[in-house]
TrEMBL record, chain A:
This is Ras-related protein Rab-7a. It comes from Callosobruchus maculatus. It is found in: Late endosome membrane. GO terms for molecular function: GTP binding; GTPase activity. Keywords: GTP-binding, Lipoprotein, Nucleotide-binding, Prenylation.
UniProtKB/TrEMBL annotation, chain B:
This is Rab-GAP TBC domain-containing protein. Residues 567-589 are annotated as: Disordered. It comes from Callosobruchus maculatus. Residues 337-434, 466-507 form a coiled coil. InterPro entries: Rab-GAP-TBC_dom (IPR000195), Rab-GAP_TBC_sf (IPR035969), Rab_GAP_TBC_domain (IPR050302).
């Protein structure tokens, strides 16, 4: 059933302001890097088609604003996410410290079926820069403490590890989606939630 | 170019405190050197960089003259001249924007804000890090802000920081820097700061950033309702594709369209916004949606959002398009904002109410489940108690049964005993009457009353008495045997004496023999002729002794009280005395 339909994976990128969320997304989707990105206000997304295990999937990558107060604006995009990418700047310790709150906030707002099994991927970005503040070991320890989150060290600027990281993200998202699909398939009669029941013209209610 | 800007200001004779002579006006110097044209005009997938677009300062003589006239009048009257609105809607000439924006915002009247700026920039802000991170990301395509540590970035940092100190409630919010940068492209820091403060406070833009974006959500709701009102088909299309206003319009509103659109359009929007206020947000948004309605109706969710991100800003690149859009925007009447606001508040209250109710229900549910649990525990206890009581009741039942059986038994026994008692009583009564009628018996009774054994009828005393009597009997028997032995001896002696006597008799004279024979005959007439005759020395008490033995012989047969009583009459007084002493001894012990 799922194979004939277009598989869409929804991925959310979270992390403090200026850790490189937009840059990572653009490096992966457009293979470009520029210093001229503007601060993201609200949320943006890019899509990319890719093949995972001989299966073509479309990844919808949502890029969010990093300032803490914008979290409430991002919430609307969290629901239905298949994977959450947490990003920190390896040269900025504070961005590493915020990871817990980003993760917790996501789990609260997205309220996935099984919060403990929801796939996260951690990216330590800007490894091309010096001096380094957060060691790989420290980041890996954090990942282990969070039910073994996959960890990648990336440089959006140099395109380092970005492809591999997003492939892992896609695989985790797909696994998550399959597990949810399996869950749904346990019920013989699916209830389709489409808009067909809506009145065809909205004019009736506004006059 | 630069001199013409200065000339314009001088021409209009605006008495503004500005440092434009010290700071090269960026809008004039750098706009021509924006991102390469080919990139700006490419229709690729790349979104337009923020802060791009040509803004020509070219302006026709006519327009300049009308502006000069209007501004002159404005100066003298202090009130907005009638022609001003029309002129602003057509777009403020780039060369005049700095001054016109300040006047529209009413900056001259608030000169003290400008004074305070110098103090504010010296103060520390807790938003410094956030601001610093955003500075390089604000209008990065614009020459004026391109350079790290350059004049543009430094001014932007200072203005943003000063504002975060000035308005501690909002502090710094992402989006503000775009607004500040737009202003900085037209005026020096102090003025830019003043206009920013006016925009935030007087034009109520700061409400958008406050309280978890509550006001922003109100604006987005209002936009949604306006879309429903003005763009029915598109609204339905968006609804069916789950495209919500916050997905494309939050950035528009939070930055006053500055972050994504080409500068010419951005500046023109600011012109109109400063002229007429918040309604402009909705007018411009609706104009954009109307303008590209056909395109949007063809697209799905992803397509729509990508269109807003990439295609729409690119469509606004030409001055013509911008002018058209603004004209369209100004023609749109947004009347029902107040109503929609009330609806939003009602909706929010309903949601809150619902949430409250839900939480109340949840609480009640919890209470109920707690009570349910308590009830269950109590029911368990009750069933335990029931079991216990049942057992007790069963026990009591069996007890009762046995008891009643026993009672019945006792009743029967009692009945029997009663009957017996009655018969005994009757018998006794009978006996009594018989006794009373018999004189002998009455006497006997009287005598007997003194007899303790009879009176008390004590069987123990009787038995004792029997034992004593038996003992006495044994002793008596012994005495009898001894007596018989002695008797035998005496008989022997008698024989010997008889033989002696025979021999003597033979020798005796005949008379003597005759005398002796007569004596014998006499003696044989008695019980113990030999004894009496030959043993004259024996005690005199013999008759009593014989009778006593006779009595004992009779006693060895089974005892009967009357016999004992009979026996007692003749033989027992001394023994009774002894038995008395015995019992008294016993009781003493």
């Amino acid at each position: 059933m799922a194979s004939r339909k277009k598989t869409l994976l929804k991925v959310i990128i979270l992390g403090d302001s200026s850790v490189g969320k937009t840059s990572l997304m653009n490096q992966y989707v457009n293979r470009k890097f520029t210093n001229q990105y503007k601060a993201t206000i609200g949320a943006d997304f890019l899509t990319k088609e890719l093949t995972v295990d001989d299966r073509t999937v479309t990844m919808q990558i949502w890029d969010t604003a990093g300032q803490e107060r914008f979290q409430s604006l991002g919430v609307a995009f969290y629901r239905g996410a298949d994977c959450c990418v947490l990003v920190f700047d390896v040269t900025a310790p504070n961005t590493f410290k915020s990871l817990d709150s980003w993760r917790d906030e996501f789990l609260i707002q997205a309220s996935p079926r099984e919060p403990e099994n929801f796939p996260f991927v951690l990216l330590g970005n800007k490894v091309d820069l010096e001096p380094r503040a957060i060691s790989s070991k420290r980041a890996q320890q954090w990942c282990q403490s969070k039910n073994n989150i996959p960890y990648f060290e990336t440089s959006a600027k140099e395109g380092l590890n970005v492809e591999q990281a997003f492939m892992a993200i896609a695989k985790n998202a797909l696994a998550q989606q399959n597990s949810t699909v399996d869950l749904y398939n346990e019920f013989p009669d699916q209830i389709k939630l489409t808009n067909t029941q809506k009145p065809s013209g909205g004019s009736g209610c506004c006059q | 170019m630069e001199s013409s800007g200065e000339l314009d200001r001088n021409l209009l004779n605006l008495n503004l405190k500005n440092f434009s002579s010290l700071i090269p006006s960026p809008s004039i110097t750098s706009i021509d050197t924006l991102t390469p044209k080919e990139e700006y005009y490419s229709d690729g997938d790349e979104p337009l960089l923020s802060g791009t677009g040509l803004v020509s300062k070219d302006c026709s003589e006519d327009v300049l003259e009308s502006w000069a006239e209007v501004l002159g009048r404005w100066k003298s009257t202090k009130q907005r001249p009638r022609q001003l609105a029309g002129l602003v809607r057509l777009g403020v000439p780039e060369a005049l924007r700095g001054e016109v924006w300040q006047r529209l915002a009413g900056v001259e009247e608030g000169a003290e804000i400008m004074e305070s700026y110098r103090v504010l920039i010296t103060k520390e802000s807790n938003c410094e890090n956030v601001i610093q991170r955003d500075i390089a990301r604000t209008f990065p395509a614009h020459d004026f802000f391109k350079e790290a540590g350059g004049l543009g970035q430094d001014s932007l940092y200072r203005v943003s920081k000063a504002y975060s100190v000035y308005d501690s409630e909002v502090g710094y919010c992402q989006g503000l820097s775009f607004l500040a940068a737009t202003l900085l492209l037209h005026m020096p820091e102090e003025q830019a700061f003043c206009v920013l403060v006016k925009l935030m406070y007087d034009y109520r833009l700061r409400d958008l950033y406050k309280d978890g974006f509550d006001n922003l959500y109100l604006r987005l709701y209002q936009l949604n309702r306006l879309m429903e009102e003005h763009l029915d088909a598109l609204w339905t299309h968006f609804e069916s594709h789950h495209v919500e206003t916050h997905m494309f319009a939050s950035q528009w509103f939070l930055t006053l369209f500055t972050a994504r659109f080409p500068l010419y359009f951005v500046f023109h929007i600011i012109d109109v916004f400063l002229l007429q206020g918040v309604d402009t947000l909705f007018q411009v948004a609706l104009a954009l949606l109307m303008w590209c309605k056909k395109d949007l109706l063809q697209l799905d969710f992803e397509g729509i959002l990508k269109y807003f991100r990439v295609s729409l800003p690119k469509k606004c690149r030409s001055e013509e398009a911008a002018k058209q859009l603004i004209k369209l925007a100004c023609s749109i009447k947004v009347k029902k904002l107040k109503k929609y606001e009330a609806d939003f508040i009602a909706l929010k209250e309903a949601v809150e109410h619902k949430e409250n109710e839900a939480s109340e229900v949840e609480q009640l549910r919890m209470t109920v489940s707690r009570y349910e649990e308590e009830r269950k525990l109590m029911m368990d206890e009750i069933s335990q108690l029931k079991d216990m009581l049942k057992r007790e009741v069963n026990q009591a039942d069996t007890d009762k049964k046995t008891n009643s059986a026993m009672i019945n038994d006792y009743k029967l026994i009692r009945q029997r005993l009663d009957a017996q008692l009655r018969t005994v009583k009757a018998e006794l009564e009978d006996i009594k009457t018989k006794i009373t009628s018999c004189e002998k018996c009455t006497e006997f009774l009287k005598k007997d009353e003194k007899d303790p054994l009879r009176g008390s009828g004590d069987p123990i005393k009787g038995e004792e008495r029997i034992r004593e009597l038996e003992l006495e009997l044994a002793q008596t028997k012994l005495a009898l045997v001894e007596a018989e032995c002695r008797n035998q001896n005496l008989t022997h002696q008698l024989r010997a004496a008889e033989i002696e006597l025979q021999t003597a008799k033979n020798s005796w004279p005949p008379w003597l023999s005759k005398t002796l024979t007569s004596i014998k005959e006499v003696a044989n007439k008695k019980d113990f002729p030999n004894f009496n005759v030959s043993q004259p020395g024996l005690p005199n008490a013999t008759p009593t002794f014989v009778s006593h033995i006779n009595a004992v012989r009779r006693e060895s047969v089974p005892i009967r009280t009357d016999r004992i009583a009979e026996n007692r009459r003749d033989s027992a007084p001394s023994v009774i005395k002894d038995s008395h002493s015995c019992t008294s001894l016993k009781t003493q012990h």
